[in-house]
């Protein structure tokens, strides 16, 4: 909660829940990444929050951008940043979207299989491709599935095909899992990357780049290491595995760049008990899984929540959203402690909501509007 | 897949996934409910699919409407249907939304606790309220949480308070769980409702109505009983518990009304394997959890999928969506059998997608558009 956000909310007249993002915090975060990993290029993961004001600021600061779709590429280009600052980082692309990105000037593409390489060779000839490898994601609060990446032993064949088809076999990428609390989580993947560099060199192909992905955490309720600790650990691992021939490196912070810059203001709609002997209150907010808080899925992300009554005694509550959908429950397995004096109509402030809230909103589920967003 | 939908898709020129809803099927479903439960009023659950064409048709056929929000109430009124055909069925309502609904003419409201009764007494004086009770949801493919409803033994106090505050204590509601495969699932809740009717009568208050909710299934991969079987079982239970003094009854089909009326056409974006010895292919579509198929969450709803190559041999596939989000995987725990000849660029048809697809779409997650929708 920054003073600028507090001031903004004091003056806001519109009704309904909203997220407010403070650009000063985004700026600080960008500098923290740039300083902690001075030889690494920052590619902001646009999907975390594509608000134009955020993209404009980051473009101005010199950031590059990791895009998941043609629409995101167009949003980045609208800032005036050149296409040379864009990576089309989605490993799953329609061939006509690859062609469109190429037409827009994009020359850096992610792949994780031979079929994707073939599409790029046909529709974005001569481009650079990096191959994403699987990574176990241990230590992450939002561990990734096997959806992206191939087994490391498959990567050389994928990259060799790229080379054979006239593309630049450019490097390796991986992702250690979102909201990664272990600063050493990058080590084993960097080891795999170095082995692939070695293997490719033996085939006569020099890889150049390691894309170390995202995973940098926002601070929710649990304490997390700061960006400098990640920078140091990653640099140690890079030198351990690559010696004094360090590759070009990229990181793709999304949550780590904007997560702590945003705050959601919501309202208590109802407080009730399910039966007379129920010790847990049900607290219903005007925001839930379908209009901003999708990342409470499986209670993975546990947001800090502030009220005006936090000095009062607290008791456990189930926290739920406003829709008629029974899965629209935020915290139930581990109830949330809220003040006994909390009342219907009270405002609550949900911290660290700058990432993965606005675009995750449903268009109109149950007739509720998507989350209103202000960037200040 | 109806002939009308087939014809529509043959002529469609736009790119990207879409859902097509055939109004003839909705009409048939409405008649099936109306005929199978002739003395029960049908309140269509607008949240299942609020497309204006669907609301217009149902209004014309004489349906009433279960609304989750003021926006849904306004959509129903836009059809020309009177407010006397609307139930504000969400138990979680802001008091200013109750006031707005009252202003629009709505006089029927759901409650499940005393605090909600107090809001309605203040902002919708004299209205009818029904109290939702908890129900175990056994037998449902999408069982409901404890989010809505109170313990049956609390209901008389809630309704007595309504009566004391000048509201009409009108009845009881419950929901047996969405996609309910057991036609007898209504029996025990109807027993609870009858007991509450009896208890209230002893307090000198005559309840009038039982709202038997939704839960009527769409046919996905698993066979389900037809509407007549539900009608017969429900009628048996009603007479068992209420004898010859049957209450006024309501049902709220949503999925059962529109689920099988809609079909999604999607495209195969990529097919790959994660490693050389992987027997399971990964098939990525241009539709996933965030642009229409949210109900694949926990693989709860298993949609039938058709391809042009279904006569070929089939092998297990993990099915995933197009976003860079690792949870955007549709079927993995139980892989989906798809033809070995399936290729990138092929169209697939996903059946029974008329309910809970369009409005569940995210506004723009990863830059992907919400699901395009056509009602024919």
UniProtKB/TrEMBL annotation, chains A, B:
Sample GO molecular function, one term: ornithine decarboxylase activity
A GO BP annotation: putrescine biosynthetic process from arginine, via ornithine
Required co-factors: pyridoxal 5'-phosphate
EC number: 4.1.1.17
Matching Pfam families: Orn_Arg_deC_N (PF02784)
Keywords linked to the UniProt accession: Lyase, Pyridoxal phosphate
Pathway(s) the chain acts in: Amine and polyamine biosynthesis; putrescine biosynthesis via L-ornithine pathway; putrescine from L-ornithine: step 1/1
Active-site residue numbers: 324 (proton donor)
Enzyme class: lyase
One cellular-component annotation, GO: cytoplasm
Every Orn/DAP/Arg decarboxylase 2 N-terminal domain range: 25-258
Family: Belongs to the Orn/Lys/Arg decarboxylase class-II family.
Protein name: ornithine decarboxylase
Keyword Lyase: yes
Keyword check for rRNA-binding: no
Catalytic activity: L-ornithine + H(+) = putrescine + CO2
Residues modified as N6-(pyridoxal phosphate)lysine: 47
